[in-house]
Amino acid sequence: MTNREKYNKAFIDCFSVSEEVLNEEFVYQCIPAWDSVGHMGMIAALEDTFDIMMDIDDIVDFASYTVGIEKLKNYDIEIE
Amino acid sequence: MFISNVGNLNDIAIIESNGSILTYADLYKNVSEFKTFFDGKHLVFIVGENNFATIVCYLSAVESGMVPLLLSSMINQNQLNNLIDVYKPKYIFQKESRPSNDLNLLSSFGEYGLFIGSKSKSIKLHPNLALLLTTSGSTGSPKLVKLTKRNLISNAKSISKYLDINSDDRAITSLPYNYSYGLSVINSHLSSGGSLVLTNSSMMEGNFWRLVKKYSVTSFAGVPYNYEMILRLGVDKLEISSINKMTQAGGRLDFNKIEKINNSLKSKNIKFYIMYGQTEATARMSYLPPKDIERKPDSIGIAIPNGKLWIENKNGELIDQVNSVGELIYSGENVSMGYANSINDLELGDINKGVLQTGDLAKFDSEGYFYIEGSTNRFIKIYGNRISLDSLEKIVSNKGFESLVTGDDNKIVIHIINHPNLSQDSLRSEISEVIGINHVAIKINVISEFPRLDNGKIDYKFLNNSK
Fold first, then answer.
1. Closest partner residue to A37 among B234, B238, B383, by Cβ?
2. B7 lies in a domain?
3. Among chain A residues, CA nearest to B76
4. Does B203 touch chain A (CB under 8 A)?
5. This prediction's pTM
6. I need a surface site. Which of A2, B118, B166, B206 has the fewest CB within 10 A?
């Protein structure tokens, strides 16, 4: 799997959404599943997937699908 | 009334998330202006959130003797319409962007409006009735807890006393205003001359922590999952140097986690309070004094000031032996009048008479500290919401499926008999929406038949272990 596929899978699994909705409009609280509880689950899934430990600032400012891609760069993960 | 008359008028009462600062003088002025819209004694639905307009509407409604029902602005329209059909409120305070076909706008308050409901009907409200709260989070269930002004004042006073809340204290609204615990934070601070930072941001948002830092928040309230988030984020990494008090209620937090959090908070000179309560008792019934948290991290502590806790056996007789389990009973001025399930129930008087059977099983130790051991009924507390497993079974059966529901404080499992129309994903999202719980906590276990005991009864034990 490419990094993009892995990244998308975490969102699809955690929020039960289809791949088409994953774009710059997919933001925190845009659907009921992405609340603070869902956020914690999604971060845990990304950490498992990429074998990283995310920093507090990156967790709390991970505000959208697109922002997340920038945040992962801090861990040398490039989502192409 | 319960907003402070003791504090200085020029003291800060409220800081909005956009940075607007309002003193007690500003708050009183806004409340007395808002009160002019209310006349008589009527039902008011407040469909709001943690912001100034909502708080002013709530305070004005209670002050003018109206009976507000507090609801979340996140409530879905069907659930709101159901509640409107059942209770036919005269006034509805909501975002103007919500559907308002049958409503007449009385006045605007920023993005909110106060409307007159077209389905409103002159109903009899008991003279002591002052506030209605839903029994759990954001569900659309018509079952409401009926509270009096005395309930609100008494509980706010007790809380302010044991938490030592005064004009130096500043809380941030980490919980929704319409949740009894969240409301108790608002009431206890405004009745002690303290201040509030109003936000709808969660702890998972950077904005929340920036507000804590920028406005030197001193106190913070959370349900177990909030503290799990804090543990995940790392207590030591949080910028919380202004905080001196943290409280936890709304369900049981694992005592290993309590110890872990308390150790980190201790080094920051933050007092950590474990508390216990129910909406049926306005909010709080007990607290564990921070000095005892290391000795008894699994205890819910002692009754709040002016309250009393004891244990009874199945026959309603007092159990006075240490470490014997029975039903936990509470008495105090904060015990609600009872429930309402229909409009007629709003006319009825106090049936609890100051005594609440909590439905929780508990014991006490030789020093009189209480410990929750379980529940007499099939309730679980998840993300701070109290959920009846029996009513959840009814919800699923109304959708045409046969199910049994089990659960603990981390998850709900719906054991369902396989059916051609069953879509697990859509059932999960529907249930998640109805009960207002994130779908990750809901598991669906498809089975071919229900396990039964020899006597034909459902084998819940087997189900509990099956997933």
1. B383
2. no
3. A32
4. yes
5. 0.88
6. A2
